[in-house]
Design a protein that fits this description.
mainly alpha; two-stranded antiparallel sheet; ABC transporter involved in vitamin B12 uptake, BtuC
Length: about 290
């Protein structure tokens, strides 16, 4: 069976790849949007923290024998704690300065982290097995869906939508948003704003680590796995609108699908289509598709 002259298996296969890539785009851009929208920090360390999540899962398996499911819980917590340390010891000193200082600091940290892991583990990649409970696949009739890839898509959607709900629909989220607009007023109600900021940064970092653990069985564990991806994710955030939570989610999944379809109909443009879209959006709507001009 063919669709638009393309074999249906190839078309749906690329759509699946696009959804998987979109899952990681959405999770990572969500973490960036949370950090920028609530803290006004451009976190260039995000790609390295995504890589740290994958390596943390790998090391938990090698050193402690902990499998995928424990790593999916523990790795985001461990990497999130390192994010808290970075925020308290470094980023907190830059809040009153221009955004450029935070960007330069996080960019430097990303290079240091990637360099240390590359020197220790090399750059060829380390295998990480798919958990037994998610091995195999399901025949959907029109395509074969590997169980693990289906899990990645569903888990990403659940985490992304849960995060959006907490930030946009709960009292905690309203406190977070208010703290970005008027921290002194929120502090007067007895809320510890610096602690809230620190935990928010740690949560954004934990989202990146969560994505890294899920990516490990698909892309292997590599010190440079976040280096190229973070550039694409920043483009996703810009297209969706800096700081827009729903914009990050919808744009992440949407651009993943567009990228997958481009590989079918015009493969030469698949590596640049997201950046072309970013340029068009910036020309027509500088604040992004879901952003608001301040």
């Amino acid at each position: 069976m063919e669709i638009f002259g393309i074999p249906s298996q190839a078309l749906f296969g690329q759509l699946l790849i696009g959804l998987i890539n979109g899952s990681f785009y959405a999770l990572l851009s969500l973490g960036l949007a949370v950090i920028f929208g609530l803290l006004n920090i451009i976190n260039f360390t995000h790609g390295a923290q995504y890589m740290l999540g994958a390596f943390c899962a790998y090391l938990l398996l090698e050193w402690l024998g902990l499998g995928y499911w424990w790593s999916l819980i523990l790795a985001p917590v461990i990497v999130g704690v390192t994010g808290v340390v970075i925020e308290r010891t470094m980023l907190a000193k830059l809040y009153k300065l221009d955004h450029l200082y935070g960007l330069l600091l996080t960019f430097g940290l990303a290079l240091i982290i990637q360099g240390l892991f590359r020197n220790e583990f090399g750059s060829s990649g380390l295998p990480y097995r798919i958990p037994e409970s998610l091995q195999g696949g399901t025949n959907l009739g029109f395509m074969f869906l590997p169980n693990y890839r289906g899990w990645v898509i569903v888990a990403s959607l659940v985490v992304c939508l849960s995060t959006w709900y907490v930030i946009e629909r709960t009292k905690l989220g309203s406190y977070l948003r208010a703290a970005t607009e008027n921290p002194q007023l929120v502090q007067s109600f007895g809320i510890n704003v610096p602690r809230m900021i620190t935990l928010t940064y740690g949560f954004g970092v934990a989202l990146a680590a969560f994505a890294g653990v899920m990516a490990a069985p698909i892309y292997q564990v590599n010190p440079l796995m976040g280096a190229d991806l973070i550039i694409v994710v920043f483009a996703v955030v810009v297209i969706g609108g800096m700081g827009s939570i729903m914009g990050a989610i919808l744009t992440g999944f949407g651009l993943g699908i567009i990228e997958g379809l481009t590989k079918v109909f015009y493969p030469e443009a698949s590596n640049t289509v997201i950046f072309v879209i970013m340029i068009i959006v910036l020309l027509l709507k500088p604040a992004g598709l879901f952003g608001t001009q301040k």
